[in-house]
């Protein structure tokens, strides 16, 4: 499937602002520690909603290392067998931080919902987890431009006996659907009129539920579904498709997140992201290709557009 065309200024198609790979509420709860100081930086914490320039980048260059928050979610970001951060986002981080003069990247694994609170509490310096960019999160953190745009897919029984292709198919045929905990796919399904979605821990549990006949399909991102079914002979993946909410594409575009106090840091990082996208995304694809990302997952959407 051809990748969706990104919204450009002056067109009528606007990225749907209300949804994300993880639910909008994930990460929205503050730890109440915005004023706590961590060893990673010395910039003062701004008032809520206030953006400052910040000097964290210089501090990280001096110390030679950066802490990245990841959510242990292959292939977006996780800790490998060697104890090092790996996955799509950490691989990008390794390249960009070296270009910014920071040689060591240290992963800090947390639950997905703890990424933004952990960033604000200075447990780490940047969120490197392929986090979907949406207006609610944009009120709390600064995003670099997205480095991928993801379609959805279903885990179904071998041969896809019900011919499931979209959420509307599931609703129209009265089928049973499951998805992962806090996945945006739950919101997409409900927007399509599916009132009862079985929430499971992850795609591994989804495979079992589909194979055992407890549900007819499990909804997830294209790449997580494809990765999950490759290791299973019991199920298969449907063709990727673009979710639609209220008649508009619900774009799932993710990127790196920074504290509101560190605009300078974000801007320097974003310059390097844009360089990776030059020459038809060639260098970016070389970095993320080993994790299953391809040209269909590239996007020229901006954080400003996704933030609304």
TrEMBL record:
Residues 65-287 form the Solute-binding protein family 3/N-terminal domain. InterPro entries: Ectoine_EhuB, Solute-binding_3/MltF_N, TAT_signal. The keyword Signal applies. Signal peptide: none annotated. The gene is ehuB. The keyword Cell membrane does not apply. Pfam families: SBP_bac_3 (PF00497). Keywords: Signal. It comes from the Bacteria. PANTHER family: ARGININE-BINDING EXTRACELLULAR PROTEIN ARTP (PTHR35936:SF17), MEMBRANE-BOUND LYTIC MUREIN TRANSGLYCOSYLASE F (PTHR35936). Gene3D superfamilies: Periplasmic binding protein-like II. This is Ectoine/hydroxyectoine ABC transporter substrate-binding protein EhuB.
């Amino acid at each position: 499937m051809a990748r969706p065309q990104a919204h450009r200024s002056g067109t009528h198609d606007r990225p749907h602002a209300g949804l994300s790979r993880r639910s909008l509420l994930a990460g929205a709860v503050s730890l109440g520690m915005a004023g706590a100081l961590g060893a990673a930086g010395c910039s003062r914490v701004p008032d809520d909603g206030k953006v400052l320039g910040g000097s964290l980048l210089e501090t990280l260059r001096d110390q030679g290392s950066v802490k990245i928050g990841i959510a242990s979610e292959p292939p977006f970001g996780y800790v490998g067998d060697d104890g090092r951060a790996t996955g799509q986002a950490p691989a990008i981080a390794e390249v960009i931080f070296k270009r910014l003069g920071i040689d060591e990247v240290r992963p800090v694994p947390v639950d997905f919902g703890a990424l933004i609170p952990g960033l604000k509490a200075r447990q780490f310096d940047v969120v490197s987890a392929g986090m979907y960019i949406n207006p609610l999160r944009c009120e709390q953190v600064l995003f670099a431009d997205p480095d991928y745009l993801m379609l959805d897919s279903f885990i179904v029984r071998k041969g896809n006996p019900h011919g499931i292709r979209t959420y509307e198919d599931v609703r129209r045929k009265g089928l049973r659907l499951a998805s992962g905990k806090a996945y945006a796919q739950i919101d997409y399904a409900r927007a399509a009129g599916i009132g009862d979605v079985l929430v499971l821990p992850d795609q591994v549990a989804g495979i079992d539920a589909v194979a055992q006949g407890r549900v007819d399909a499990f909804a997830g991102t294209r790449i997580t579904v494809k990765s999950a079914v490759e290791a299973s002979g019991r199920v298969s993946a449907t063709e990727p498709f673009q979710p639609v909410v209220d008649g508009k594409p619900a774009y799932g575009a993710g990127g790196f997140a920074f504290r509101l106090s560190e605009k300078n840091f974000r801007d320097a990082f974003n310059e390097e992201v844009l360089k990776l996208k030059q020459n038809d995304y060639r260098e970016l694809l070389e970095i993320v290709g080993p994790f299953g990302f391809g040209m269909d997952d590239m996007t020229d959407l901006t954080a400003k557009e996704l933030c609304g």
